[in-house]
Amino acid sequence: MEDKTKRKLSRREFLRLAGLGLGTAAVATTAAAPQSAPAARKMSKAEFSDPAGRPKRPWWVKTVDEPTTEIDYNVYERFSEQTVTVRGPGLGIHGGADLPGQLAESGAKLKAERLANGTPGYSHKDQAIYNAQMWDLRGETYFLGPQKADTPETLGVPKWTGTPEEAAKMLRAAMRHFGAATVTIHKLTDDTRKFIYSHDPDGKELIFTDEEQAYEDENARYIPKKCEWVVCYAMQMSAETLRRSPTHTACQTTLATYGRSRRTQGVTQEFLRGLGYQALGEASINALAVTPAYAVLSGMGEMGRMNRVITPEYGPMVRIFKIITDLPLAEDKPIDAGIMEFCKSCKKCAEACPSGALSFEDEPTWQIAGGWNVPGHKAWFEDAVKCMTYWNGTSTNNCTICFAVCPFSKEDKAWIHDWVRFGIATMPALDGFYRSMDDAFGYGVQADPEEWWNLDLPEYGFSTDASVLEG
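^ thats the sequence. predicted structure below, dont judge the formating
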């Protein structure tokens, strides 16, 4: 049987290819680059020149008319998050009725054993910080928002008006201040409304209406068709913390990101309410719509082999959320930064996946992996039952090893990282070489969870200095 894993280069082969690859890259970059070098990431204190407030990305992040993920809207249909995905009851549907209970029992036993043994990453202090982040997730989120802020009517002023570009720039400024790393916008069409779930995780149906105002009752949530703009926003995760996956130490950063996203959603909903507009959000985690679809359509990133969105700024080290509004906004286009193309030859996440859930195929496919997938788009479909079984079996109900080992996950602590991203976007023939470089320098190796407690990390474990890319 053919070995589908990527062959590792010997040290001698790597050094030989390094000389060839860097020499080729130097020639190619000199010929291809319209400027001297890719600039380092940094915060810009100057005003954005873009009328819609879009941050300037490197020139090799191209905007395109169609996303790099192919979509067949004639095949794709709306689906229920409650029963199709394996995050809730779907695990029992697709993996067997007894599986959730068995995993809960074995996970609880393993958790107790690790606690008693003081296993690094699963010890008392590790479980304590994990449980602290779980507490933050017990707060409420609202489809309609908290609805506490003053409206234009109560203030005695007309609703805010401006051009779609002015509105987008204003909203981006506010949401960045609320904690969003990046903000992108997609305007709904009849086709892309299909990415709104038919039913939310709690079983409530999502229904489009011709009415002016959104509302909900015991059985359904009603979305006015006038709410046409999907606002995607990314919240950073700590790459250094996730290098300790799948321990409690690592997984608490995922929980922290979801906790921060709840506040960002609520204050954004109240901000738009104060301007005189509706903002429909996630009533629970992973509710309302297929977030990766809108993130790709609005140019936040591209789909990767791990079947998650990879962004040019942060790689996969983000969690992405969305709000739907009736405030007219300037929309964004998809991008091509060479990310999906790189994933064709990399396969590092698939090699590292402990459950064997990720695909080793060279090309994405239209063929789904199981009933937890929805046909109509071309992707590397994962075996979600294997993935979720491993999650629950680790006692942390999380993993993210694929995020941590991804070559796009490293922070820009050296200029070479910008050159590599430039090469990935412009010279796909060298993708295999860049993957080998990633291995040779020891990137993507999981770190000692006990060491994390001694690190001098910034607030929330990540730096915001990389929030804006200078071209």
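The first strand starts at residue 62 and ends at 63.
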